[in-house]
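Q: What changes when flavin-adenine dinucleotide is included in the input?
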Amino acid sequence: MTSNTRVVVIGAGLAGVRLARRLGELGTPALLVGDEEHAPYNRVLLAEVLAGRYAPEVITLPPPTGLLRTRVTGIDRAARTVSCADGMSIAYDTLVLATGSNPVLPPLRGLFTPDRRLPEGVHAFRTLDDCLGLAKAVRPGTRAVVIGGGLLGVSAARALAVRGAQVVLAQQAERLMERQLDPDASRLVLRHLTDLGVEVHTECRVRDVRCVAGAVRSVELADGYALDADLVVLACGVRPRTGLAEQAGLTVRKGVLVDDELRTSDPHIHAIGDCAQHDGTVYGLAAPALEQAESLAELLAGDTSARYRGTRSLTRLTLTGPGSPFDLAAFGETEARPGDDVVRLTDATRGTYRKVVVRDDRLVGGVLVGELGTVGALARAWEGAEPLPDDGPLLHLLTNDGGS
Ligand SMILES: Cc1cc2nc3c(=O)[nH]c(=O)nc-3n(C[C@H](O)[C@H](O)[C@H](O)COP(=O)(O)OP(=O)(O)OC[C@H]3O[C@@H](n4cnc5c(N)ncnc54)[C@H](O)[C@@H]3O)c2cc1C
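A: The predicted holo structure follows.
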């Protein structure tokens, strides 16, 4: 069976759903094809579902019209059709790839069963199904090992600890969330996790996953030490999901290459969100995915002047637990180069920490932990990249919320 639709969007995640909704509002309906079983949802909130704070329905996105549930298995660029796992073929004039990312599965011995599946008890942390699988498996006292100490690993460890699991987090780098945070802020995140009972090992490389009868029993570290485990969470980063684009012969580097019109090397095919690489950057974050969707909707609805020029994106994370919530935000360069000006405010008792880095009168980065009152003003100063006013000390940046 073949159906005819002008704009076809592959992937019903944050970017695909936003694009389809905006196109609908602008009078250019699209067909959205998604391979997940559930109604589209906000992936950013999965840790809250795992922690038991939200029911899965709460994170459902406003439903798009024209959603088809199947997996696209191939693109025929000459015929301008896509083929689907259920045998359907769909014709397009414009195709949009919004296929997101896949979790990185680390090269560990024993990670796969002979039939190439993850052993029982070993889970990635990317989809609602991963999250529901983990939520079902975790009980008070469950021994859980989280592999990876970036944003995903920290969120997963906190959520499992809130559920009463005994959590060990194994981080290969020397500190937590090293990509976003400076060492002082990392230490505060470490303290937050240890206060929740999480045991954190840094500079710790996992070598092996040991299983009995297809179920995980322990995780072995490079130094030979074994951690007993009923549950293992793989939080080792993500990789853009580019298989379809590669098979179709589109230009792919880290992600599917796109220009300022979010167009791939084929002018009839665009890419947005985690799978796309724009101006050298694969963002892997929600805000750029949504901005790209908005820009592309305007373009496809006929605004030929619309362009995507990149996103200066802030990383925000709220770790809610039994105590007060632990908020953090980081943007740009959080570590100073020689010659930069740095302003830092620390309150060890309250566990707050604020720091900005200024270079040549411009704000180039900052990190805020526990006290986010100034985040709006700082983000605006950073996004605008305007020279900072010289009518006051830099400290104002951290103490004056600019009415935000
Ligand atoms: C647990 C977790 C926490 C996160 N927290 C944050 C955060 O705090 N802040 C932040 O900015 N970002 C966060 N992120 C990242 C953020 O979720 C992503 O950047 C965002 O979802 C990207 O949107 P997307 O639409 O490109 O991809 P996705 O949301 O991954 O959607 C892609 C969709 O395409 C589908 N798909 C792929 N291939 C096909 C195919 N061939 N056929 C049909 N469908 C297909 C996939 O199944 C998926 O449903 C988090 C991610 C996770 C997993």
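Observations recorded in class: The chain has a mean pLDDT of 90.
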